[in-house]
Amino acid sequence: MTDAIKIDVWSDIACPWCYIGKRNLENGLAAASADDDAPSVEVTFHSFELSPDTPVDFEGDELDFLAKHKGMRREQVQQMLERVTGVAADAGLEYRFDLLKHTNTVKAHELLHFAKEQGRQHELAERLMAAYFTEGRHLGREDELVDLATDAGLDADAAREALQSGRYLDAVRADQAQATAYGINGVPFFVIDGKYGVSGAQPAEAFAQIVRQVWSEHREPAGVEA
């Protein structure tokens, strides 16, 4: 039995390119899964905070935040968001920046580590990103996060306890320390089998090609050079 390809994904819930990259990765893996010799792949998400100093309740809309954070004019930010919205649409995602509530994401990351422990990390990552980018949900608030956790199949009381205890914060910080060790300073960033790094929201076709290539390496007999 050939070992599965391990893909470690560093991302932030509040990163629009991360949700696009996630969907493109999924679509690329789905395409490769139709191969006669389909790759076996295990995907794990890791924490990265793009703006850790963001308050839980940011006063203003996404244009206000990015104009301040990036030092850009609102007109420039609007053009940038329109471009991202178009790219997201190509990936099958309907972004609603007009509804988006910018917030601190550390608690969402803590909840993702709880979900990983429960075997529901993928379901929660999808639910959180959809809630943030397409539904205008406030992911900095405990009650909202607990509701979304239940949507992803997690127990509400256990999710609330995980958030209130803060016991998963060390796991978030460990992910961030690993990102620093890898030299990751932007997300999404994909580490494949601990040795190949792929930066940015690559097209689905690129992800399919990558996993096919790495799978062929997995299938080579030990000691045989390509």
TrEMBL record:
Gene3D superfamilies (UniProt xref): Glutaredoxin (3.40.30.10)
Domain of life: Bacteria
Ranges where the DSBA-like thioredoxin domain occurs: 7-210
Pfam hit, one: DSBA
Protein name according to UniProt: DsbA family oxidoreductase
Organism annotation: Microbacterium psychrotolerans
Phylogenetic lineage: Bacteria, Bacillati, Actinomycetota, Actinomycetes, Micrococcales
